[in-house]
Amino acid sequence: MTPVPDIDRIMPEVILTLTGVAVMLIDASLAARRSRRWLGWIAAMGTTLALWASLWQISLPEGTGFFDTVETSTFTVFFHVLICGIVLVALLLSLDTLPANSHHQGEYYALVVFGAVGMCLLTGAVELLVVFIALEISSISTYVLAGYRKQTGRGPESAIKYFLLGSFATAFLLYGIALIFGATGTTQVYQIAILAPANENHALIVAALAMMLVGIFFKVSAAPFHVWTPDVYEGAPSPVVALLSTGPKVAAFALLLRVVYEMLPSLRTLWAPLLWVAAVLSMTVGNLAALRQQNVKRMLAYSSIAHAGYLLAAFAGIGDLGIAAASFYAAAYAAMNVGVFAVITLVSGYDEKLPLIDDYRGLIYRAPLLGSLLIFFLISLIGIPFTGGFFGKFYSFTAAMSPMNGSAVALVIIGLLNSGIAAAYYLRLAVVAAQPAAPSAAGAAPAKPEIGIAVGAALLLAVAATLVLGIKPGATLHAAQSGAHTLQAPAPGVQSSPLSPIIQATPQAAQ
Amino acid sequence: MHALDQSILTLILLVPLAGAILVAILPDRGKAPNWLALIVTLFSFVLTLHLPAHFAPGMKGFQFEIDRAWIADPLISYHVGVDGLSLWLVVLTGLLGPVGVLASWNAITARRKVYYSLFLVQQTAMYGVFVSLNLIIYYGFWELSLVPMAILIAMYGRKNGPKAALKFFLFTFIPSALLLVGILWLYARTGTFDYVNLQIYLAHDTLPARALFWVALAFLAAFAVKVPVFPLHGWLGDAFSEAPVALAMVIAGKLGLYSLLRFHVELFPVQARHIAPLMIALAVIGVLYGACLALVQRDFWKVLAFGAVSHFSLVVLAIYGLAPAAWNGAVYQILSLGIVEGGMFVLLGVLDTRYGTSQIAAYGGLAAKLPRTASYFVIASLTMIGLPLLSGFVGEFVILSNTFTDVSRGWAVAAALGTILSAGYMLSLVQRLFYGPESTMAASKPASDLRFNELAALTPLVVLMLVLGVAPSYWFRTMKDGLQPEATQASPMHSAAQSPDSLPVSVHTEGQP
After folding, report:
1. Which of A208, A355, B286, B430 allows an S-S link to A180, with CB 3.0 to 4.6 Å?
2. In a domain, A186, yes or no
3. How many CB atoms lie within 10 A of CB A396?
4. Helix (H, G, I), strand (E, B) or coil at B235
5. pLDDT at position B505, please?
6. What's the gap in Å between the CA of A421 and the closest CA on chain B?
7. Which residues are CB-neighbours of B228 under 8 A, at least 6 positions away?
């Protein structure tokens, strides 16, 4: 068999980088007055191409390139496709909602694409230094994007908060990498997986794991490292939040899966309780805080913290079951969350004239399509069956239930009660949108938002993904399961159980 | 076998859904959504009639079964089927479809498209609950039934819709979360979501009893809220006064009662037996409590709500008496209540929309002005009270007589008191609304008796009240076989749990009078 050229292993990243560079160069060479909107279409096309390249990578034999630093496997392809999809929706959304006279449109699109490079690389990297570089590429792009509305006070505040706290978190991650290098003498994930169990510097590895978890928890906005989330989301432009609340999080979850399931499965007894606590805290803190919010974006920020908790619950699952459930949840969460932020962007506009929940009163009469879509995405976020949100939760909690001990059952009970609490605030927004507008405010009612082609395509993608994941989740779940298998398989000497304990325990019951 | 047998249930599920999509796509012009919804619901009603026409009463197990893999891992199959228990409930749901559309015909004037498409989604969800034989599919439809209901209450509520919608949703959604925990736990232990497999599995009793007790309790709690059983009825009053008539008539009762029988008593027979004494006590308290509160209400929706609590509790009593003969009465009573409540809601909805108030004190002497409304109302009230030769009597009689002989005389007598009280509040409602001196409010508004659409909605219901009352044996014949298989394990509460030295109880399968 001929070896796979290294470049094929990072084809989506290469395409995205070239797109980003092209967008930047064209932007610089255009006259200042020329419209730069079409650069967004170039970025969108490049992302589509990268998405296609990710799908093409499935035909490559599973393996690594560039001296064992990047991997292609079903797992990486799954997350590449997911991230490219998210970025594509975010770009389409931005195309129609960024103000036409903005001077920095070219930069904006380039930054989004560069961010995508980092996120994609993060899911494929199997070398901790590459992981760190990928994380930085994606973070720095998003720091800048968060402050894109610099004419308002909140924009720079959002960016600076995100940047300062994010840098701290990344420093923790880097420190963790340094410690693990100190203990094992390598930063290659497979090597660490082999060396870690028998290592005499156990304390060092434990410390490294803790440091890395802090960094990753920050990126996925899991409690107690979540405090930046509402402020940043409130200040950043809505289309950026659509990206920010999904793309980097999904990538960071992929990293978390790699770290705990592939790199340090031997420390399961250590990280499983930590993730359990983080899951419970995130769900509870996120939902309780969201109940009290008046600002829609802050409410959704807390809701995204809660969703990080539901996703973390999947990590209680053993082996493939947990990985597949977490991957599936990431996809379902991304689809519905990017969708809800797309609707919010359209309703309140780029300059956010309508930030509060009460401003959504009568939305369904003013803009029937947007109103129905908002309610649809909220229903999915609640987790009503036949939407992606339901199956996400369903798989996550099925996985969490699999160890069959008391703490697993407790986690599921806490999680599902939390989804009951969550229903209250999602429903509050849905009910407000379904109420007739107060007659006194009718004169000041904002104009009906227009839905352009690009944004229409973005919404269509999000709705289709949410529905497909809810009605026909089989294909995605299968992909997630094969991905889960490849995440564990390559490291020799790692104990992995390809069959879930349930199936082994009761072969006669499963017909 | 009929050619349709293999696909009839799928058709029943899909027709309203397709109708909902059609209503949503087509333009909202005049009464077009009304007509479309009427045609769709009538068509799906006709489809449901296929079930009793081709139902084989002697057969055990489920009929018209469809079992196809939907998701491979974890295995979730699209498994649907009906037996004697669910058969008539499906037909009832089908019947209440066109009745609901006709009842909403003039009441819903704005945004008809949204209303009728959500109404049709609600129909699909309810059919789904009754025919699902896979716990995840069942849970899916169960949850799905909350959404259109909550949105419609919020959008079309009379005064305080959003609050009632939120209350309804949270009251029913949070216990459902526990239900899902229970389902997932069962799956983690047994590896299956299939109802039939689970029933076999649980019958072999290999699971830890303590954990199973909690699982059964989670199932019970979710259903008891939906019924609602006595201390969990907080949401009902608001929902009854706010929900549009067509939805209020299906919001309580049959979904929860059916689920109690199918997914609690039949799935967890041992656990149900343990908790039965508590449920019987709660049921009898509910019968009396509901009736007493109904006596003192000033708002007729509240009278109906507490009356419903009382009547539903009687069915709960029959279910947890664990006497199969009383179960026949329970199913019969669920059907009868579905019809009577449907009629009541339409009639009271007529009054509320014509006169704009639900305060009983504002009414009086309407019988002369609205003779047809009055006579329909009297028939419905008498059915609700349980007058012989009307459908309410049969169910109540079977339940009470079997409770008396098989379960406990004391509880039966106490519950019978509740049915006497029901005569009190229903007749006093009739008297205060329709007789006596004409109130100033009634005099100030022009008289307008039942319109054609309202008559079309009510007449089939009233005819059924009579038919079900006069000829119950036809219905019992199909029902009792559906409830038969469990008769081997289930013996009445009284003989098994309370006094083992009592006479061996004969199973009264010929429970009809």
Report:
1. A208
2. yes
3. 30
4. coil
5. 37
6. 8
7. B234, B235, B236, B252, B256, B309, B312
Rounded CA separation B484/B137 (Å):
25
The model's pLDDT over B433-443, given as tens digits with 9 standing for 90+, comes to 888 888 887 78
- Of A398, A405, A476, which to mutate for an interface test with B (greatest number of B Cβ within 10 Å)? A398
Domain limits for position A303 = 7-438+450-490
| Per-residue model confidence (pLDDT) at position A492 | 44
Residue B23 has pLDDT above 50, yes or no: yes
Could you give the CA distance from residue B343 to residue B373 in angstroms, rounded to a whole number? 11
- Residue B389: CA count within 13 A, CB half-sphere: 1
Q: What is the pLDDT of residue A287?
A: 94
CA angle in degrees (0–180, nearest 5) for B451-B454-B460: 130
On whether residue A501 sits in a domain, the answer given is: no
Assess whether pLDDT exceeds 90 at residue B350: no
| B78 close to B7: Cβ distance less than 8 angstroms | no
Q: Which residue is closest to B140 within chain A, CA to CA?
A: A385
CB burial class (10 A; 0-12, 13-18, 19+) of residue A407?
Answer: middle
Cβ pair A416:B178 closer than 8 A: yes
SS (H, E, C) A40-55: HHHHHHHHHHHHHHHH
pTM of the prediction?
A: 0.87
Distance CA A162, CA B59 (A): 67
CB contact (8 A) between residue B188 and residue A423? no
Cβ proximity of B360 and B429 under 8 Å: yes
Examine the predicted complex and report whether its ipTM is higher than 0.85. Answer: no
DSSP β-ladder status, A63-65 and A70-72: antiparallel
Residue A504 lies in a domain: no
Structure-block tokens of residue A98: 């960024």
Residue A496 has pLDDT above 70, yes or no: no
Mean of the per-residue pLDDT values of chain B: 84
What type of residue is A440? S
Instruction: Flag if A481 and B73 touch (Cβ within 8 Å).
Output: yes
Average pLDDT over residues B170-188: 89
In a domain, A502, yes or no: no
Helices B300-320 and B409-434 pack at an angle, to 10 degrees, of: 160
Percent of chain B beyond pLDDT 90? Answer: 24
The per-residue pLDDT for range A209-234, each reduced to its tens digit, is 999 999 999 999 998 899 999 999 99
Give residue A244's pLDDT band: very low, low, confident or very high (50, 70, 90): very high
Distance (Å) from the C-alpha of residue A475 to the closest C-alpha of chain B?
A: 9
Residues 6 or more apart from B15 whose CB is under 8 A from it? B40, B43, B44, B47
Residues of A in contact with B162 (CB under 8 A): 431-432, 434-435
Confirm if B137 and B194 have CB atoms less than 8 A apart.
no
Among residues A239, A286, A333, A292, the alpha carbon closest in space to that of A428 is found at: A292
DSSP-derived pairing of the beta strands A70-72 and B76-82: unpaired
Least confident segment among A61-65, A95-99, B243-247, B487-491 = B487-491
Cβ neighbours of residue A237 closer than 8 Å, sequence gap 6 or more: A145, A148, A149, A155, A350
Look at residue B496 in the predicted model and tell me its pLDDT.
41
Q: Band the pLDDT of A48: cuts 50, 70, 90.
A: very high
Q: Is the pLDDT of residue B468 over 90?
A: no
Task: State how far the Cα of A206 lies from the Cα of A201, in Å rounded to an integer.
Answer: 9
- Closest partner residue to A420 (CB to CB) among B74, B155, B174 is B174
Q: Give the Cα separation of B328 and B482 in Å (integer).
A: 9
Of B143, B177, B189, the CB nearest to A417: B177
Total count of domains within chain A: 1
- Cβ distance A494 to A501 under 8 Å? no
- What is the crossing angle of helices B452-470 and B371-385, to 10°? 30
